[in-house]
Specification:
By secondary structure, this protein is an alpha+beta fold. The protein contains two helices and 16 strands.
Length: about 210
């Protein structure tokens, strides 16, 4: 009985040691697997967040309206009054407000008309709605109520002040004669014109005006 008992203990002892060793190995393996799973999860989340952030930046760069909207208006009309409460009307083929400065509006084929039926038109223009200043460029044609027509390539109109100035050559013709100058300024509601640089004038005699 004793020897049998000792034999059973001997048999059980190595198996128990082996089981403990295997249990420790399994525990270590579980810890390693958990660590690897945690690292993989962190890397996966980091990769996913990085992809989302990069994608959002790409979309912001690719979207044309990300920095603001730019809308083109066809057939716009601006109504206003000068310092003497006289109305004027500014029209154009198209108008587009600038993103960097909403007060500035780019115009195509602008045309300004006042209460005295004087008109100014050009190929392009920039309207400053805050200052009521109109910059015209390209085949500028100004026609006043007296029948005179002036042409230039660039003109600035202070619409509220009813004042005009230009640093480009001016050509004018009408019933009284012709005039040319390198620069000009129109003051006092058009009653005074200042011509500068290579000024040339030609007056038409009264007898020829009626012919």
């Amino acid at each position: 009985m004793v020897s049998a008992h000792n034999h059973s203990i001997d048999l059980w002892g190595p198996r128990r040691a082996t089981s403990l060793k295997e249990a420790r190995q399994r525990t270590a393996l579980v810890h390693i697997l958990r660590l690897l799973f945690t690292i993989g999860a962190v890397l996966s989340v980091g990769w996913l967040l990085g992809t989302i952030i990069e994608s959002s930046f790409r979309e912001q760069r690719s979207e044309p309206g990300a920095a603001g909207l730019s809308v083109t208006v066809h057939g716009p009309r601006f109504d206003g009054y000068d310092d003497n409460d006289r109305p004027y009307v500014l029209t154009a083929a198209t108008a587009q407000r600038r993103r960097d400065n909403p007060a500035l509006v780019d115009l195509v084929n602008p045309r300004l008309k006042d209460v005295a039926s004087s008109t100014v038109q050009a190929r392009t223009g920039v309207w400053n709605s805050e200052l009521e200043v109109l910059d015209l460029e390209g085949d500028v044609v100004m026609t006043d109520a007296g029948g005179y027509t002036f042409t230039s390539q660039k003109t600035r109109m202070y619409v509220r002040e009813n004042r005009v100035e230009g640093q480009e050559p001016l050509n004018g013709f009408g019933a009284v004669g012709e005039v040319r100058a390198d620069s000009y300024e129109v003051l006092d509601d058009g009653n005074r014109i200042i011509l500068k640089g290579n000024v040339w004038t030609k007056f038409t005699p009264k007898k020829k005006r009626g012919q």
